[in-house]
Design brief:
By secondary structure, the chain is α/β, with parallel strands linked by helices. It has twelve helices and ten strands. Helix content is about 45%, strand content about 15%. Strands 1-2-10-7-8-9 form a six-stranded mixed β-sheet, sandwiched between helices. The protein has a four-stranded parallel β-sheet with strand order 5-4-3-6, with helices on both faces.
Length: about 325
């Protein structure tokens, strides 16, 4: 289990590279004191640089290179962090990865292999590439250093927003949620913390209900960064201990929120990054009164897709 001291120590390393992103109040919201933590404004466009740099910066000088598996944001973060360390990187991405995320990964100097249609398949390929090349595999979430690095998002929320009463975080494989939940709950157990995942990719909810890691037979969601088919024992352990609840949110609400953020709040956020706020706007959570912070985890958005999606209903937040 990751601890608050480990996250504080990670922050000393992460802050050398990652930006301390702002916490902004929503300008258009029916719920008072609703804030967003803008990791969409982070280097490489998502929170992922925090964990990637924390892990890669600690690799020994003898390391020859790194591999990773990702739908896009972890790919770009690993490529960027590897370049900063002067290491070659090979990233195995989903066949259906968003094109601009693939190009973004290549722009940081990484070799990209389109290696399959599920997170399990591309992870196996990336691990195989690491073994064959004698490189180090950098996992997207199932690693203590990755989780501690991602947890610095939660640490900054607690430090920067006095009186925060609740924090809402999206769940893919569980790296971000594990770190954030640990940082928040160990800083102040009275703060409520909620996990959100797409209804069509509810692997953490399935694991919590079963009491063990469950591999979903398929996932279907517009939120490409939240599409792993399973969490890990490590991330399940953290979420089981700290989450006040984990809920699902429909793609329609996710897209409606991404559109709202773009057109009303003037923030570019990809569907995965909008999921936590979507649960707030859709009334999925029993939030206490007072400041609530939803994490906007990424901004590598296909803006045309968001704008072309059908507009949602009335203002909800």
């Amino acid at each position: 289990m990751i601890t608050l001291p480990a996250i504080r120590k990670a922050h000393l390393i992460v802050s050398r590279v990652a930006l301390r992103t702002p916490i902004l109040p929503l300008k258009f919201s029916d719920r008072l004191e609703t804030f967003v933590k803008c990791e969409n404004l982070q280097r490489t466009g998502s929170f992922k640089i925090r964990g990637a740099w924390h892990r890669i910066s600690k690799l020994p000088k003898s390391c020859k290179g790194v591999t990773a598996s990702s739908s896009g944001n972890h790919a770009q973060a690993v490529a960027f962090a590897a370049r900063m360390r002067g290491l070659p990187a090979c990233i195995v991405m989903l066949d259906q990865s968003v094109p601009h995320k693939v190009e973004g990964t290549r722009s940081y100097g990484a070799e990209v292999i389109l290696g399959g249609s599920t997170s399990v398949v591309i992870t196996e390929r990336a691990e195989r590439e690491a073994a064959e090349r004698g490189w180090v595999f950098v996992p997207p979430f199932n690693d203590p250093d990755i989780i501690a690095g991602q947890g610095t998002v939660g640490l900054e929320i607690v430090q920067d927003l006095r009186g925060v009463r609740s924090v809402i975080v999206q769940i893919g494989g569980g790296g971000l949620s594990s770190g954030v939940m640990t940082a928040v709950k160990e800083s102040n157990p009275k703060i409520k913390i909620f996990g959100v995942e797409p209804a069509g990719a509810a692997k953490m909810r399935a694991a919590l209900d079963a009491g063990r890691v469950v591999t979903l037979p398929e996932v279907k969601t517009i939120a490409d960064g939240l599409k792993p088919t399973r969490v890990s024992e490590l991330t399940l352990e953290h979420v089981s201990k700290y989450a006040d609840d984990v809920v699902g949110v429909d793609d329609a609400d996710i897209l409606d929120t991404a559109r709202h953020l773009l057109l009303q709040e003037k923030l570019v956020v990809e569907p995965s990054g909008a999921a936590a706020l979507a649960a707030v706007r859709a009334g999925k959570l029993k939030l206490p009164k007072g400041p609530a912070v939803a994490i906007l985890s990424g901004g590598n958005a296909d803006v045309r897709m968001i704008l072309d999606s059908p507009p949602g209903g009335a203002l909800r937040a």
